[in-house]
Each structure stands twice: as structure tokens, then as C-alpha cells.
Amino acid sequence: MKPASPTISLSVASQQNQKPSHTRVVRVSAYSVATVLALLMTTATLPPLLADQSDRAVINAPISLMTAPIAGEMTRVSASVGQALSPGEAVAQIHNARIDRTTLIALDSKVEELRGSLLAARQKKDSDNAYVAALDIEIRRQVEQTLAKLDGEVAEARARLAAADAEGQSTQAVVRRQQDMVDRNNASIDLLRPTQHKLEAAQFDKDAQAAKLAQKLAELGAVKKNVFVGNDSNSLAVLTQKRRDLAFDAQRLAIEETQLSASLTSLQGLQASERKRLDSLTDARMQASHGGVVLSLGAAQGRHVSPGDSVATLVDCEQAFAVGIFSYRQAQDLAVGTSVRISAAGTTVPERGWVSEILPKTSDRTDQQYAVPFPQTERREMYVLVSLDPTSTPAANGTERAGLVAADGSQVARRTTPCSVGQWVTITRDNGWIPSASVAWKAVASGFTGPDAKAAWGVLASSATRAAQTASDLAVRGATSPEAKQMWGTVTGSVAQAADAVSNGVRQLVAKVSNPSPGVPGSAQAAPARQHSTENTH
Fold it and tell me: What does the alpha-carbon distance between residue 401 and residue 417 come to, in Å, rounded to a whole number?
């Protein structure tokens, strides 16, 4: 039976030796991968639920949007981004030269027309009043004359009545005497009848005089009451009627004057309002009513704007706050009033603050009231609003903090917006011990790639470069010195002798393998194995 080849035996032995090492490598790799996955799952699950720290936070502040009240050209923009404005300070000026004044022109024309009508009515009323006054004087004079005349006529009528009464009484006495004579048959009845007729005539004359006296007394009383009747008072009646007509016309004109005056006042109010409206549409001076810091400008000088276009956005830095996202499980630990620390990238001293409000969610309308939108939350997360402590800000913490900020140029460079609005920060609860996963990984990464690590690597690289340069210089100087040349000659001779000895030994070994000794058993099988070993060695 032919013996097994030594080459195959060595291969099998080497494979058996490699199996345990390969298994260990696979096991170690599996454990490493499992450990990394478990670490990643733990850092991704537990810190968001239990972390006392959140880097999903941003500095925010309420804003006030200033829009163009009219259409026109921006003639002046006096504010600039980052400028702090006091209440009432001017921001921009807008002028509109193309304004429609048709309504104002129509109102001006109507006002002038009413003024003319009012003036004419007032003058006519004054004229009527003057004419009425003149008529009153004339009527009074004629009334006085009429009263005097009527007084004389009344006195005359009374005298005639008295005369008629006296004549009647005389005739009655004659009739009574003649009646006695007739009764005694001393005279005829024919003598009595003419006397009786005369007595009746006297009685009728007395009644006529009494009626005439009553008429004159009635006329006198009517004249005293400004009632003019009869032929004698016809002129007074005409004057009184004319005076009454003029007085009514004056009253009508007074009413018309009142109406025209009210209409004129109303139109003048409309005219003033229209002029004020046109002035407000012609020139508009935009002011910061409550003050603030200019966050952005929406229009430049010389640009045409329409009503409602954004001109400037002001941010109230006095009410700046930080809003961060935490898990619902941290609601009790982050109750209102809890003290926290706020730190930003590149800063060395954190700011202080306290939790002012907790919101489960916000809306788009709420986001529009602030400089930047609130960060997006995920399931079972909440917003924590943190009020900043003004005594811990860099502007109000003394020379030490000012020196730190001045020494850290990157921190100053990052503050490109007023009161750091929009800057991402990290909120950490005081006495908290569970960090955020992202913050922890950033800290680990910064140990290798951070500013301190980069400085250390730079120092190490410069030291290595100087050491290599020094070694190279020493090697060059050593290689070119006489002692080195002698040493290199000795080494070269020794290497040549060693090479000759190795070459002779190899030739002798090849000769022995090619011509094996017959008395040595197994030499034929051992030669290939030694040759294989020699080949493997070389």
C-alpha cells in the first residue's frame, strides 16, 4: 500500500488548527455586534423617556409684524436689522403720489354751494327782520293815532248819548204833564200824541247814541288788542298782514338757515374726514408702538409696496424664552418654577432659567406669534417653555462673563440674530443625572474631534514631524561620516561572507537530496518532505 503524501498531512493538520481560531473570531464578532445593537437600542429608547436634558430646544421670542398701511413708494427706511427701537420711534416712511381725489373735489363743490345758499338765506332773513321792525314802528305810530282818534270819538259818543238822554228826560216830563192835563180833562188827547211821538224819537236817538258809543268802545278795544277792523283801520290791517307775512317768511328763512347750517356742518365733517383719509393714504409714517429689536426688513428704500406687505418684523427681546421638547414622563420633574440651565454650542458658561409653562402642543396660529416655529414634537412629547434669567445673560453678568464672551470668538460669531433668536440650545434640569443620547454621543465625538482633541492631535503631529526631521538629519550625518563608511564596509563584507556560506550550504543540501545514500532507510520518502519544508521556508 502506497503511504500518504507528507504535503496532504500537513494541510489537514493546519486546517484542524485553524478551526478553533475561526470559531472564536465568529463568536467574538457576534458578541460585539449584539453589544453594539443593545447599546444603540438602549441609548435610543431610555434617554428620550427619562433624560433630564434636551438638545431639541431653540431660543424664541414674541414678534410684532409691521405691514404697509397704504400703497406707495418707500421713501425712507430709518431702521436696520438688529437695531433696538424705542416706543414711538420711526421705522419707515411711505409716500403715494397717485391718489384719487374725486370725492374730495365733489365735497368741496357741495360745501361751497351750501355756503352760498346759507349766506343768501341769512341775508334775506336779516332783510325781512329789518322790514318787520320798520313795520312794527309804523304800526305802533298808526295805532297810537287811531287810539287817540277813537278816544275822541268815544267821548263824543258819550256826550251825544248824554244829550239824547237829557232830551228824552225833558220830553218825558212834558208828556207826563200833558197826560195829567188830559186826565183832568183840561186838555185834549190830540195835544198829548205829538209829545209822545217826540219822546219815542228821543228814546230812539238815545239808543242810537248808545250803540254808536258801544261801537267806538269795541273799535278802541280791538285796536288795543291789535285787531284792526272797519274802514278807519283798513291801513293798519294791511300793514299788520304784511308784517305777519314778512315775519313768517323770516321764520321760514331761519329754519332754512338752520337746515343749511346743519348740512354744511355735516359736509364739512365729511370733507375733513376725506382730507384726513387722503393725507393718511398719501403719506404714512410707520412707528414702533411698543418698541423692540428689528429682526428682519421686508422692503428696501425705493420699493413699491401694497397694503398688507411686510415691512419689518420686531422681536421683543425682553420676553425671550427657550422652548424645548421633553417626554411626558418628565412633566412632574419639570413643573412650573423648576430651575434649569441653558447652554449653546460654543459657550462656556450656561445661562440660568426656570420653567414658566408646559404645553402639550401648539398650532400654526401660535407659531405665527413668535420669531421661529416651535420644534416638531413626536408621540408622547411636550413643550417646556423656559424663561431666561436676565441676571445670568452675558450682557448683565459683569466683567467676568464679558471676558469669556470676548475670548470666545465663535460664540460672538454665532449671535447673528437679536437676542439669539433661532439658536439651538440644550436645556438641562438642575440636579439631573440622565443626559440626552445625542448630547452624550456629541460629547464622545468631541473627545476625538473636538477643539481640545484637535489641538492635542496638532501638538502630537508637530512633535512627530520634528522628531522625524531630527532623526533624518542624524541618519544623513551618520551615513556620511568616516566611521560610518568603515562600519558599512565591515557590514558589507560580513553580509557577502554570510551569503556565500548560505549558497554553499544550499548547494550541498541539493546535492544530498539529488544523490541519497543507499544505506539510509526511508531517504526516498524524506527527501520530498525536506524539499517541501525548504520551499515553504524560502
Answer: 20
